[in-house]
Every structure is written in structure tokens, then in C-alpha cells.
Amino acid sequence: MRILACHGCDLLIRLSDESGVVSLCPRCGSVLQRSRRTGIDRPLAFALCGLVLFAIALTNPFLAMKRGGGVQETTLPTGIIELWKQRLCGLGSLVFLTCALIPLVQLTGLLYILAPLRLHMAALAKLVAESFDPRLIWDVIEEDS
Length: 145
Ligand SMILES: [Zn+2]
Description:
By secondary structure, the chain is an alpha+beta fold. It has 2 domains: 2-34, no CATH class; 41-144, no CATH class. The protein is built from 5 helices and 6 strands; from the N terminus they run E-E-E-E-H-E-E-H-H-H-H. A two-stranded antiparallel sheet has the order 1-2. The radius of gyration is 24 Å and the shape is elongated. It starts with a strand and ends with a helix. 8% of the residues are buried. Bound molecules: zinc ion.
């Protein structure tokens, strides 16, 4: 339990440690504390959003060049293929790894861990988390349970 002075009227108030609670000043009604703990929902929403944005980034052109009378548009996959066709295999591989494969593995791995946690299948989530970096994941698991 903490004691906080209201910024509106300087009344001293004891705040509870409950999560998900908005504390208001009983005298003036000012918001004293707003808990931001959302558990597993926020990272799961970010991972889902990231996967959707990743799909959009892969399928939409990110570069357009006017040549002659026409416009040539390039998406990420076609850019990687063009690098390979131009015998820039090292650069094409690097672009493929850093812009396509690694982000996809990270996002799907996050979903693979977070979805069982959200569905209260913690045993499966712990098993999956141990195959990744346990230092990063254990905090999330312990907060949720
Ligand atoms: Zn107040």
C-alpha cells in the first residue's frame, strides 16, 4: 500500500496495489493512479499486428522506378529474386535473412509462445519458451500466472 498526494488538492491518499484499477481522489476526483498492466494481451496484439504488417510489407511495392514510358515496381520478394538473378547472392541472402526470414521467425515464434499463454495452456508455453531464450520469456510467464 502506498501513500500519494493528490496533484489536484494535495489530499494524502492510500493507494491499493491492485492491478487494473483506476484510483480517483475522493475530494476532487482527479485520477491518481491508472494501472497499465494488461498481461499477455498487449504483446499478443503487437505480435498479431506485426504479422499483418509484415504480410502487407511483403506484398506491396516499396520501390518504383520510371524508365522510358513505364513504371517498374519492386516488392521485397521480387527484389531478393532480382539480386539473385544479378549474381549478388550474398547480398540477396542477407536481405532475405534480415528482411524476411528472421522477422517472420520472430513474429511466429512470439505467437507460438503467447497464444498458449493467452489460452491458459501454460505448460505448453513453458515448453516452447525453453526452446527460445528463457531469460526473455520467463518474466512474461510469471507475470501471467
Ligand atoms: Zn484531489
